[in-house]
Hints:
Layout: H1 2-13, H2 21-25, H3 28-41, H4 48-52, H5 60-71, E1 96-99, E2 103-105, E3 108-117, E4 120-131, E5 134-141, H6 148-153
Amino acid sequence: MIMRLLFMLLLLVMPVSVFGADNAQQTPRATVQQLFADHFKNDMGFTRDTVARKRNWLTPSLDQEIDTYFRQPFPADEPPPINGDPFTNTQEYPTAFQVGEAVTEGVRANVPVVMTIGPTPRTVRAQVVRQGSGWLVDDLIYEDGSTFRALLKEQP
């Protein structure tokens, strides 16, 4: 009886993550929500520092392409190929966002993110892939069909 009581008490005081609640949060939608919450809470500029904060939510291959982009020598008198915020696909920072429901097919998912920019909403679709026991953003698809990865490969 005392052992049963101690076990019940232990269940009440142990962190929920020990029992897998973190895994329950690791859905495609939760990953995108966390990424964009961080993005909106902090500086939305596209710099090495702002991307470094997002690495936990990006696939290693996307992170590597971003690093390659930043290593390029860009002419000082011209704007870089990515001249704005590629996470929201705008030069004007949105004021709010809402993450929609994920459409999952096997190890891949598409998650819409609708952003408020004045009276016109803008949607970016996060392409998310399963990596181990979690989900990571592998690309962003813009309303015109172009992608973040394609932007990263553009030359000045």
